Automatic annotation (TrEMBL):
Keywords per UniProt: Membrane, Transmembrane, Transmembrane helix
InterPro entries recorded: Alpha/beta-hydrolase_catalytic, Alpha/beta-hydrolase_N_dom
Record-annotated Alpha/beta-hydrolase N-terminal domain positions: 22-239
Residue ranges annotated for the Alpha/beta-hydrolase catalytic domain, each copy included: 259-540
Pfam families in UniProt: Abhydrolase_9 (PF10081), Abhydrolase_9_N (PF15420)
Species of provenance: Corynebacterium sphenisci DSM 44792
Record-given protein name: Alpha/beta-hydrolase catalytic domain-containing protein
Domain of life: Bacteria
Keyword Ubl conjugation listed: no
Transmembrane segments: 39-59, 80-98
Lineage of origin: Bacteria, Bacillati, Actinomycetota, Actinomycetes, Mycobacteriales
Length: 567
C-alpha cells in the first residue's frame, strides 16, 4: 500500500478549519458546543483539504510532471517540510485558541450569559471535538481501504473507469442500511418515545383550572388529560382577573376573567377535528364577545411561550380570548426536520377556521383579531397567509418573535427592505405597517435612531435579536456571506465575528442549542419586550416614557409574569 505523506491535505484542511472554528459567533460556547463546532469544522476542512489535494496532484502531474516525479523520489525532504509546516500551523492554532477565550468572555458580557467562559471548559471541548474528528477519520480510512480493495478486484472484470464507481456503490449499499437502522432511525425513535412520555406528564406546578373560561376545566369540551403537557401548561398558567386587577390597580369589577382555549393532539383526531373543537370552545366561553381574539401557533412540543398571552391579558384587563393547538410532541428542531408541513398546515388550519367564524359576526361586533407565534410557531403562523399583503388583509395585527429566516413572509419583507436599512432590523415601506425590532425602542425608530413616523393599522411587529442564532441560521450561510455579516454588527454581537465558508454555518447552528441560556432580550429569549410589542399592535396609548401603556406599567407586569412563570 502506498505510504501516506505526513503533509496529508485533509489534516491540513482540518487544522485551518479549526482556526475558523475558534473565532467568535453569536452565543458563548460551553464545552459541548465547542466540541461540536470543532468537530464539524474539522470534518468540513478535512473534506475540502482532501478534494484540494486530489485536484492539486492531478494539476501537478499534468502541468509539472518532472517536479512531481522528483518530489516522490525525495520523501524525507517532503516530510521535513511537512513537519515544519505542521509546527508553524500548530503555533498559530494555539495563538488563535488563546485569543478565543477573551472573545468568549466578551460575548458572555454582551448577551448576559451567567457562566464564565473558562479556559478549562474550552480546552475540554476542543479536545473532545478533535478526538471525535480523529475517530471519524480513522473510520473513513478503513472505508477507503475497503473501497480500494474492491476496486482492485472489480478491475479484473469491469472496465478500468467503472471499477471505482461500482466499488463505491457496493460500499454505500453495505453501509447505508445499518447506518439508517442503527443510527438515524434509532435516534429519531428514541427522541420520539421520550417526547411522547413527556407529553403525557403534568408539568411541575400545574393544576387543572376551575375557571369555565379555560379548556381542561370541568366545564370544558376538551378534557384535562387530552391537552398534552404544554397544553395543560397553557391553560393552567397566566394571570386571573384578581391578579390583573392587583397589578394594574384597577377596580376588580372592570376586569374580566381571561379566556384560554387549547386542543390537544389525540390519536385518531384530525387537524380539522381540533379546529372544530376550538370553535365550539370559543362559542361555549363567549369568546367572540370579547374585545380581542389572539390565535397563537405553538412550537413543536405544543408550547406557547407564556410571555405572549400574559402580556395580552394584562394590557386588555382580561378582555381577551386566546387559542392554540398541538400538532406535534417533538422538539421544534426535530419536528421541523422530520415534518415541515405540519407547522404550516396547523397554523393555516387554526387561523383560517377561527377567522371564518369571526367573519360571520357583524363587522361592528367583531373582536380585534391578532396572530402570534414564536420560533417554529412563527413559521407555522405565517403559513396561514400567502404573502405580506394577504397578512395585512386578514388580521388586525400580528406579533412574530424569533422567526427563522426561511419563514416565507419574513424572507420577502427582508428582501424588499428600504435601501440603507440593515438586515437585522429592516425598514419596510418606511415602517408603514411592518416593523422589525431588535429591542422595543425600534418599534418607533430605526436601529439608527431615525423616527419612523405614523404606524398605520394593521400593525405587525417582528421581534428578532441580532444575537439570536435561530433567526439567522440557514443553509446558504455555509457558502454565502449574509448581509448581517457585511453590515454593522448588532448591539449584542461581537464586532470580531467574521464569516467563514462552511464553518460559520456550523457555529451558528450549534449556537442555537444554547440560545435560551442567555439574558432576556438576547439570543432566543423574547420576554419583557412582549409587553410593549403587543401594546403597540393593540393600539394602546403609551405613557410619555413608553414604560407603560393602557394604564399598565410594563416593569410591574413583567415582575408578576417572571415571578409566576413555572418554566
Amino acid at each position: 500500500m502506498a505510504r501516506r505523506p505526513l503533509a496529508a491535505p485533509g489534516l491540513l484542511g482540518a487544522e485551518i478549519a479549526s482556526w475558523a472554528a475558534f473565532t467568535p459567533s453569536l452565543i458563548p460556547r460551553p464545552w459541548p458546543s465547542t466540541a461540536m463546532t470543532t468537530f464539524s469544522a474539522q470534518v468540513s476542512g478535512h473534506i475540502v483539504g482532501v478534494a484540494a489535494g486530489v485536484a492539486a496532484r492531478a494539476a501537478g502531474r499534468r502541468l509539472f510532471p518532472r517536479a512531481t516525479r522528483a518530489a516522490r523520489r525525495r520523501p524525507r525532504t517532503r516530510d521535513a517540510v511537512a513537519l515544519a509546516a505542521h509546527a508553524a500551523m500548530s503555533a498559530v492554532t494555539v495563538g488563535v485558541w488563546l485569543r478565543s477565550i477573551g472573545h468568549q468572555r466578551t460575548i458572555a458580557a454582551l448577551v448576559g450569559y451567567d457562566e464564565l467562559a473558562s479556559a478549562r471548559a474550552q480546552l475540554g471541548g476542543t479536545a473532545a471535538g478533535t478526538a471525535a474528528f480523529l475517530a471519524t477519520r480513522a473510520a473513513a480510512v478503513g472505508v477507503e481501504r475497503v473501497h480500494g480493495g474492491l476496486t482492485g478486484l472489480l478491475r479484473r472484470r469491469l472496465p478500468r473507469g467503472l471499477a471505482p464507481a461500482a466499488a463505491g456503490a457496493l460500499v454505500a449499499a453495505a453501509l447505508a442500511p445499518p447506518l439508517d437502522l442503527l443510527v438515524v432511525r434509532r435516534a429519531i425513535g428514541r427522541v420520539s418515545r421520550r417526547a411522547a412520555r413527556l407529553n403525557m406528564r403534568v408539568l411541575p406546578g400545574r393544576v387543572q383550572p376551575w375557571e369555565p373560561s379555560r379548556s381542561g376545566s370541568p366545564w370544558s369540551l376538551e378534557p384535562w388529560h387530552a391537552l398534552g403537557a404544554q397544553g395543560r401548561a397553557f391553560v393552567a398558567d397566566g394571570p386571573r382577573a384578581r391578579d390583573i386587577a392587583a397589578v394594574v390597580g384597577a377596580d376588580p369589577r372592570d376586569v374580566r376573567e381571561p379566556i384560554r382555549l387549547y386542543a390537544g393532539r389525540v390519536p385518531g383526531r384530525t387537524l380539522a377535528a381540533q379546529t372544530e373543537l376550538i370553535i365550539r370552545e370559543l362559542h361555549r366561553t363567549g369568546a367572540f364577545r370579547r374585545g380581542h381574539l389572539v390565535v397563537h401557533t405553538s412550537t413543536g412540543t405544543g408550547w406557547v411561550p407564556e410571555w405572549a398571552p400574559a402580556a395580552v391579558e394584562f394590557l386588555t384587563r382580561g378582555d381577551c380570548a386566546q387559542v392554540s393547538l398541538q400538532y406535534s410532541d417533538l422538539p421544534s428542531p426535530v419536528a421541523w426536520l422530520t415534518d415541515r408541513e405540519s407547522p404550516l398546515a396547523a397554523g393555516a388550519a387554526l387561523f383560517d377556521r377561527v377567522r371564518e367564524e369571526w367573519a360571520r359576526l357583524p363587522a361592528d361586533a367583531r373582536p380585534m383579531l391578532i396572530a402570534a407565534g414564536e420560533s417554529l410557531g412563527a413559521i407555522g403562523g405565517q403559513g396561514a397567509f400567502a404573502d405580506p399583503a394577504d397578512l395585512l388583509a386578514r388580521v388586525d395585527g400580528a406579533v412574530w418573535s424569533g422567526s427563522p429566516p426561511y419563514a416565507p413572509i419574513r424572507r420577502e419583507l427582508t428582501r424588499r427592505r428600504d435601501p440603507g436599512s440593515p438586515e437585522i432590523a429592516p425598514v419596510v415601506d418606511g415602517g408603514a405597517h411592518h416593523r422589525f425590532a431588535t429591542r422595543p425602542e425600534e418599534l418607533w425608530e430605526s436601529i439608527d435612531g431615525e423616527a419612523l413616523g405614523h404606524w398605520a393599522r394593521p400593525r405587525v411587529a417582528w421581534l428578532q435579536h441580532a444575537s439570536d442564532p435561530i433567526v439567522w441560521c440557514e443553509t446558504p450561510l455555509a457558502w454565502r456571506r449574509p448581509d448581517w455579516l457585511r453590515e454593522r454588527r448588532g448591539r449584542d454581537v461581537i464586532t470580531a465575528m467574521r464569516w467563514w465558508p462552511l464553518v460559520t454555518f456550523w457555529q451558528v447552528l450549534v449556537d442555537g442549542l444554547t440560545s435560551v441560556a442567555v439574558g432576556d432580550g438576547h439570543g432566543h429569549r423574547y420576554e419583557e419586550e412582549m409587553l410593549p410589542a403587543f401594546a403597540a399592535v393593540l393600539g394602546a396609548e403609551f405613557d410619555a416614557d413608553r414604560g407603560g401603556a393602557a394604564g399598565v406599567r410594563f416593569a410591574r407586569a413583567a415582575r408578576w409574569i417572571r415571578r409566576n412563570s413555572v418554566g
